[in-house]
């Protein structure tokens, strides 16, 4: 630990608030993979339902935001390698057109 690390930890809430105010460029494609556990399980650090939180996040991104919910925990990539590969391949194929 050093002073820089401690300052970053102390300012985390402000950094998150500032990041939430930023706009996402409408011309940049966006795809979010969400674990079912993250989408359905209450998070005591967030005051709203997890589904509402995710939908608000996607709305902040804009109309180009696409998503898919996959079964699993926060470590979604551990059990969904094939589907994540398919999603990434389809998404990137569409971006290159």
3D architecture notes:
The chain has a two-stranded parallel sheet. 1% of the residues are buried. The protein is an alpha+beta fold and 97 residues long. The chain has one domain. Helix content is 52%, strand content 12%. The longest helix is centred in the last third of the chain and has 15 residues.
Task: Throw out a few tags for this protein.
97 residues, alpha+beta, two-stranded parallel sheet, 5 helices
Whole-number total of structural domains: 1
The parts where pLDDT drops under 50 for at least 5 residues are: none
Largest sheet: 2 strands, parallel
The strand line-up of the biggest sheet is 1-2
Oligomer: single chain
Please give the structural blueprint:
Layout: H1 3-10, H2 12-21, E1 30-35, H3 36-40, H4 50-61, E2 65-70, H5 81-95
Parallel strand pairs: 1-2
What's this model, at a glance?
The protein is α+β, with helices and mostly antiparallel strands and 97 residues long. The protein is 52% helix and 12% strand.
């Amino acid at each position: 630990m050093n002073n820089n690390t401690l300052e970053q930890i102390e300012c985390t809430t402000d950094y998150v608030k500032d990041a939430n105010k930023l706009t996402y460029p409408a011309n940049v494609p966006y795809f979010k993979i969400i674990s079912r556990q993250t989408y359905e399980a209450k998070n005591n650090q967030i005051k709203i339902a997890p589904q509402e939180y995710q939908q608000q996040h996607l709305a902040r991104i804009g109309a180009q935001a696409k998503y898919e919910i996959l079964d699993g925990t926060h470590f979604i990539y551990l059990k969904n390698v094939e589907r994540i590969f398919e999603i990434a391949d389809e998404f990137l194929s569409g971006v290159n057109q």
